[in-house]
Amino acid sequence: MVPGKSTLLKCILGLNKGFTGEITRKEKIGYLPQKSDIQSNFPASITEVVLSGTISNNPKSIFYKKEDKEKAEKIMKELGLWEIRKKCFADLSGGQQQRVLIARALCATQKIIVLDEPTNGLDPTISVQIYDLLKQLKEKHKITILMVSHDIERALKYADKVIEIRDSEMVFEGLPKDFTLGGDKK
Amino acid sequence: MIEVFSEMMSHAFIARAMLVGILVSLCAALLGVSLVLKRYSMIGDGLSHVGFGILTISTAFGISSPLYIAVPGVMIFAVLLLKIGSSGKIKSDSAIALIASSALAIGVAVTSVTTGMNTDVCNFMFGSILAMSTSDVYLSVIVSILVILLFVIYYRKLFIITFDEEFAKASSLKVKKYTNLIAVLTAVIIVVGMRMMGTMLISSIIIFPALTSMRVFKSFKKVVISSAVVSVVSFILGLYLSYVYNISTGATIVLVNLVLFIIFSIIDKIKNS
């Protein structure tokens, strides 16, 4: 783990209270954290996980509203999760779990999704599927996707804009085609 | 069986124990689902030992209703335990073990100096069905209704916080507030329940129903409902068997829980084969 990337994400999400500086956030953010080991044994159906993404729409309500359920249904159908919605999250493959968590993030927002190493621990074929899915969502829904990754090759292939952080400092910012590994300081 | 039941209920102390036990079992199971999934199962054990320490000290000082001291005392420790666990200097399981054994030691030491190992102390250790006074009944009814209400109101949020704390924080949920709430409610349920179940056995009614249900059920909602049912059934069956065969109530309830756990595990094995 290179220090700085996850911290930056946490600052953007407002999870890190200890930083100095200012971040202006106008839109709700859909967040896809790194996997925690709690989830590997957690009894939760796909529907429960995806639906939980809508919490920030009606945080005061006791139950999920009809509009939330419809939104979750639409997103699950779009991501090919509707048929398996009653399955247990923990029993899914790594790639499918990521798909569910992306669906949950989409329930929280249609503007910006923040992902922390989404392809960690996935085999290359599945990783490509996740990247393709994100690309598809970006183009179809006009969502901003902000992602931390150390999979440089694929990040360069799919990203519109790249920032390289090394030893807590930004060493590159620009288009993928201008990127050289090691970072020519600008 | 029905005859024995009506005979049991004709004793005021058993009727009281039945009411309190059902409510406490229900609440312990609800809180237990969250605690087990968040890997906080040992908190129940730790808090019951702290409860023992406070109860014995209060008894030694001749306080007539020690619950009113033990409940706030254990609540403070509950929040403290979570704080130590999240600060990261001492891992939470070691922190709990440390505090639990110290509290138990203080309780035992105070007892040896003052009253000696009398029945009161023995009851704190292994529970007694006779221990429930009318004021205990009021306290446990109020607390149980509160726990059930809060659980229903915050159900959605509890699920998100239990499943994914980081996502909950990013969705602007006050994770600390809810975690503390769970800890404080657990503290109260433990102090009320340990009078009947005993210090050594109370944590089992928090852990067992959730673990048993997780064998078979794979969604959060089903696990919650099943835990509540398993817990209440174990209690009623345990109380009945302990009456009929004259076995310690707390121990019988734990054993019924164990049997249910084994049955659910077998069901799971058969389903998967």
Q: How much is the average pLDDT of chain A?
A: 82
Give me the side-by-side strand order of the main sheet of chain A. Answer: 1-2-3
Strand content of chain A: 5-15%
Taken as a percent bin, the fraction of beta residues of chain B is under 5%
Q: In the CATH hierarchy, what is the architecture of chain A at level 2?
A: 3-Layer(aba) Sandwich
Segments of chain A where pLDDT lies below 50 for 5+ residues? Answer: none
How many helices of chain A? Answer: 6
Low-confidence stretches of chain B: none
Spell out the helices and strands of chain B N to C: HHHHHHHHHHHHH
CATH-wise, what's the superfamily of chain A?
Answer: P-loop containing nucleotide triphosphate hydrolases
Do you know the CATH architecture of chain B?
A: Orthogonal Bundle
Mean pLDDT score of chain B: 88
Largest interface: A-B, 34 and 30 residues
Summarize this structure as a short list of keywords or feature phrases.
heterodimer, A: 186 residues, alpha/beta, Rossmann fold, 3-stranded parallel β-sheet, two-stranded antiparallel ribbon, 6 helices, 37% helix, globular, B: 273 residues, mainly alpha, ABC transporter involved in vitamin B12 uptake, BtuC, 13 helices
Could you characterize what this model shows?
The complex is a heterodimer of chains A (about 190) and B (about 270). Chain A is about 35% helix and about 15% strand. Chain A has six helices and five strands, in the order H-E-H-H-H-E-H-E-H-E-E. Chain A is globular. Chain A has a three-stranded parallel β-sheet with strand order 1-2-3. A two-stranded antiparallel ribbon of chain A has the order 4-5. Chain A has one domain (about 5-150): Rossmann fold (3-Layer(aba) Sandwich). The model of chain B has no long low-confidence stretch (mean pLDDT about 90). Chain B contains 13 helices and no strands. In chain B, about 85% of the residues lie in helices and about 0% in strands. Chain B is an all-alpha fold and about 270 residues long. Classes of the chains: A alpha/beta (about 190), B mainly alpha (about 270). The interface of A and B includes residues 33, 38, 59, 87 and 88 of A.
